[in-house]
Amino acid sequence: MPVTREINFPDNKNLPALFGAHNAHLSHLEKKLHVSISDRGNILTLSGTHEAIDTAEKILKTLQKKIQSGHDVGTAEIDAELRFLEEKDTQDKSPASTGKPMSKNDLTIQTKKKTITPRSPHQADYIQAIAEHEMVFGIGPAGTGKTYLAVAMGVAMFLEGKVERLIFCRPAVEAGERLGFLPGDMKEKVDPYLRPIYDAMHDMMPWDFVVKKMESGDIEIAPLAFMRGRTLNNAFVILDEAQNTTPTQMKMLLTRMGESSRMIVTGDLSQTDLPAGIKSGLRDAVETLEGIEGIHFSRFTKEDVIRHHLVSKIVHAYEQKHSENAHNRD
Fold first, then answer.
1. What's the CA gap between 69 and 26, in Å, rounded?
2. If you average pLDDT over every residue of the chain, what do you get?
3. How do residues 130-147 score in pLDDT, each as one tens digit?
4. Nearest partner of 196 among 246, 137, 135, 150, judged by Cα
5. What is the pLDDT of residue 177?
């Protein structure tokens, strides 16, 4: 049975940020939780089920605390809080649950330009895994934050002096890294394929600082082929788009790992660009290495997609089509 509740927010100066432009945050909550929200000054009136109103109030108060701490909030933060509340509810109902709520406070990543927090339980587990393991595989669909969070952790550890170098690589021009036909010098050939890593670093550090560290060799962004024959000591290494490696390429990179290093491998097994008949190095690594102590596998699902809300629906549609096609072949 629908109920009505009033919530009073005494801090008027933060209300525009809390409610969103043209009450966009309130509208998003209404849509997500199937509640009705009306505002009168600093008082909100919520109508809906007890459970939905409780959830809306928790989210609004969490967002208010973030704003008061100087953080920007948007609909993405609302979706993130919903994911964590749903996970907590699932854990509380589980017979094996300890009743201990999942905390995001210890999983905050601090960079020069911004503070980054997990937006789903799987992201929280991923950040924790990178902090605790020397080798981590992040596997899942596009938009789940696999690469962005790995870069953020690498940047944070570099700034703290825990590693001496940042090394980012990915296969260029599909898996064979056929760069010769492209115009320009080597940097101009490979930069388009490494743009997501450049963008992530630009989001976290002043660009003049990044350029200076790249010139000194402390930050390196290169195609996978450049890793052959090297030993990567005291480094934070990220292999992105790992689904486009061959098993030989994957083994080559993994065996480059040196002392006091961390290696993060990210990829999406549903988007392999390899020619027909060639097995993905990422799939081969999962089959070969899973269960080895010290190597952690973090898996993301469509529920972890943090891009535009349509991206999650697109991922689901393709997964469903793939499943139906596989069933028909059987």
1. 20
2. 85
3. 999 999 999 999 889 999
4. 150
5. 45
DSSP letter at 42? T
Greatest Cα pair distance, the chain, in angstroms, is 68
- b/e per residue, 281-304, with b = 16+ CB within 10 A? bbbbbbeebeeeeebbbbebebbb
Rounded to 10 degrees, the C-alpha dihedral 274/279/281/285 comes to 150
pLDDT at 86 (0 to 100): 81
* pLDDT above 50 (res 102): no
Type of residue at 329: R
Beta strand 235-239 pairing with 262-267: parallel
Query: Residue type at 191?
Result: D
In whole angstroms, give the CA distance from residue 141 to residue 319: 10
Dihedral sign from CA coordinates of 4, 9, 12, 13: negative
DSSP per-residue codes, 129-171: HHHH-SEEEEE--TTSSHHHHHHHHHHHHHHTTS-SEEEEEE-
- How far is residue 285's CA from residue 282's CA, in Å, rounded to a whole number? 5
Task: Tell me what percent of the residues of the chain surpass a pLDDT of 70.
Answer: 85
Which whole number is the average pLDDT over 77-95? 72
The pair of structure tokens assigned to 40 is 């009168």
In this structure, the strands spanning 43-48 and 3-8 are antiparallel
